[in-house]
Hints:
Layout: H1 5-10, H2 14-24, E1 26-31, H3 35-44, E2 51-56, E3 63-64, E4 66-70, H4 76-99, H5 110-119, E5 128-133, E6 137-141, E7 152-157, E8 165-167, E9 170-175, E10 182-186, E11 192-197, E12 200-205, E13 208-218, E14 221-232
Antiparallel strand pairs: 1-11, 2-4, 3-6, 4-5, 5-14, 6-13, 7-11, 7-14, 8-14, 9-10, 9-13, 12-13
Amino acid sequence: MRHSIADRLTKLDWQSIHQSLWEYGHALTSSILDAEECSGLVAIYGLEEKFRSHIIMSRYRFGRGDYKYFTYPLPPVVQELRESSYAYLAPLANQWNEALNVSKRFPAEHSAFLVQCRKAGQTRPTPLLLHYEEGDFNCLHQDVYGEVAFPLQITCFLSQPGVNYEGGEFVLVEQQPRAQSKVEVIIPQLGEMLIFTTRYRPVKGSRGYYRTNIRHGVSRLKSGTRHTLGIIFHDSQ
């Protein structure tokens, strides 16, 4: 019997995930979505009524490829993943703010966080599906859509590297103060979930914690087709 996504999330080692997020700004989990759920989300990409916006990256010099933002209501898999994973990440987000002497605290439930977004005029859903073909790529960027922003986000991988595509590695670049930038290259498998910082992570220094900015992107796809699901917890204006 297929377990709910909420049940699958309870089986993850969240202590290790939080530790990795503290140390590196990202954490890769085991498969959360099964092959059927991945193919089902890929199939949704052709249903225009499920989306509020379609972005062609080359028009805005974001890269090459395209992506679509879901409209409300979100597909059940996306909704459950967004709500359930938030509950595990909100405590860490509050720890980060405390370390950085930021007064803002995030509520325990995602529905309460969306109330904060609405008060700031951020009402449009931000979960999205991304699509890449041979030669496509995504420039380094950060996903911030307004005054209210959750410091963590998720990408779920709906295609299998080496089978559906070649190349297209997930790239994170950390800009360390007074030092060269540090690069992480990640090749997740089908159904796996990558949790990573939206903008920065706290780093312990001699005078307390400071921020290091992190941007993410996708390297050039050498062949095939690559789909991913992006889970961003704050809504946009």
